[in-house]
Design brief:
The chain is α+β, with helices and mostly antiparallel strands. 34% of the residues lie in helices and 37% in strands. β4 (83-91), α4 and β5 (117-123) form a beta-alpha-beta unit. The model has no long low-confidence stretch (mean pLDDT 96).
């Protein structure tokens, strides 16, 4: 059995978030995003200055998951009105199946306990993630154009009620 632990992190933990993103994205988005787009997107979205601005200017909170003492995943979330938005959620392939994704979502939702719903954006071609979110009770609410790292994509907005 693996020992798992989730903890809130602040500015000092952001390099760990960045390192995980660089490890996870190439595998998670293989066949979904053009390989040539992944590095520029990571450089933009996971620049330490951008992550810090997410906290300072946009009210994002971050949590880090560890498995057997090793960083294995993360989530960030913020509140807008009555809704919690999961902004980023990723788990290393080697740690999938340990319910970390579910626990990360639950941790983020619990931090905003009086919200009435939770939502997130997911690339419309990411069948694995869409399936995971559906298993967590999310439904597709809308389709939305998004720009990430200077590249245009189509995402689903997926949501579920809370309480």
């Amino acid at each position: 059995m693996h020992e798992t632990f989730i903890s809130a992190i602040g500015h000092s933990g952001l390099p760990r978030i960045r390192a995980l993103a660089y490890a996870i994205w190439p595998e998670a988005y293989a066949g979904i995003l053009p390989a040539a787009n992944i590095r520029p997107m990571l450089d933009d979205i996971y620049a330490l200055e951008t992550l810090a601005a997410d906290i300072e200017a946009r009210g994002h909170r971050y949590w880090l998951a560890q498995v057997d003492g090793v960083d294995a995943g993360f989530v960030s979330a913020y509140r807008d009105g009555e809704r919690v938005w999961i902004k980023k959620i990723y788990v290393l392939a080697s740690a999938r199946g340990l319910k970390l994704g579910q626990r990360l979502i639950d941790t983020a939702v619990a931090a905003f306990s009086d919200a009435t719903s939770v939502a997130l954006y997911v690339n419309d071609g990411n069948a694995n993630a869409i399936g995971f979110y559906k298993a967590q009770g999310f439904v597709i609410e809308a389709t939305a154009p998004v720009t990430m790292g200077g590249f245009d994509y189509t995402d689903y907005v997926m949501a579920r009620p809370l309480g």
